[in-house]
Amino acid sequence: MHISSFFALSSLLSLGVAQTITGQYDCLPAGGFTLCQNLWGEAAGVGSQKSTLASSSTASVSWSTNYTWANGPNNVKSYANVLSTTSKGVQLQNVASAPTAWNWNYTSQSSGIRADVSYDIWFGKASSGSPATSASSYEIMIWLSGLGGIQPVGSQITTATPVANHTWNVWKGPNANWQVISFVSSTGDINDFNVDLNAFFTYLVNSQGVASTQYIQAIQAGTEAFVGTANLVTNSYSVSIVSK
Ligand SMILES: *[C@@H]1O[C@H](CO)[C@@H](O)[C@H](O)[C@H]1NC(C)=O
Ligand SMILES: *[C@@H]1O[C@H](CO)[C@@H](O)[C@H](O)[C@H]1NC(C)=O
Ligand SMILES: *[C@@H]1O[C@H](CO)[C@@H](O)[C@H](O)[C@H]1NC(C)=O
């Protein structure tokens, strides 16, 4: 067999075998990413969720999550997400660019659904640290969708602020030992997002007092589900950091 036909066969196989995870903290390796269920708030309600990896490579990933959650309408039940295993460990002042592209949609959605579709980006003083730990200084959320009247942590501090070719309502407030700064799309759902995240990082340093010495410790992209039934498909997602 020629090498080229071997690679053609193995890439067909990796596209063809979808893997599904169902447990509260189940994760799957997904090329340059890790797909995790993260049903951290499931005790606040009743329901279930499963997440499926469709295909992955070093650069991009395609996946979906399917859930039904009831009760506790103000409580997050889960943050099913993909975490980049490579886009981390760079100080804000050393980022040249951080291109990302996320194409997603709901293929089914109940009425009254309360959920966001969001990036969750973690900064800290040390070059590495897990999300939502003592190593975290900032949690930066970018909401490409927020359905059912849900709100980020804290209070709204700006309206329709332009960053990276879109406009955002910025929210700020404390959570545990870190600050949360959230960008909520002021124009509704952004299903085909393709920007340089460094525009957000520059805004945070220049306008929100974030030290340029902070390190990017983790970049996650997923969905916080509160209540409702949905199947959310990420057709493709990618992110990378180019250092200076
Ligand atoms: C979502 O999960 C439910 C329950 O397992 C199933 O009936 C439904 O077909 C799934 N939807 C999709 C789009 O996978
Ligand atoms: C979701 O996106 C895919 C790819 O762009 C498209 O084929 C599909 O029709 C979309 N579904 C919905 C419900 O918008
Ligand atoms: C804004 O859009 C322009 C034109 O597509 C693109 O070159 C630029 O990189 C975008 N800016 C950001 C921050 O994504």
UniProtKB/TrEMBL annotation:
Against InterPro entries, the record matches this protein to: ConA-like_dom_sf (IPR013320), GH11/12 (IPR013319), GH12 (IPR002594)
Q: Name one Pfam family in it.
A: Glyco_hydro_12
Q: Name one GO biological process term.
A: polysaccharide catabolic process
| Keywords in alphabetical order | Carbohydrate metabolism, Glycosidase, Hydrolase, Polysaccharide degradation, Signal
User: What GO terms are given for molecular function?
Assistant: cellulase activity
Q: Which residues form the signal peptide?
A: 1-18
Instruction: Output the superkingdom of the source species.
Output: Eukaryota
**Coiled-coil region:** none
Q: Which family does it belong to?
A: Belongs to the glycosyl hydrolase 12 (cellulase H) family.
Q: Output this protein's name.
A: Endocellulase
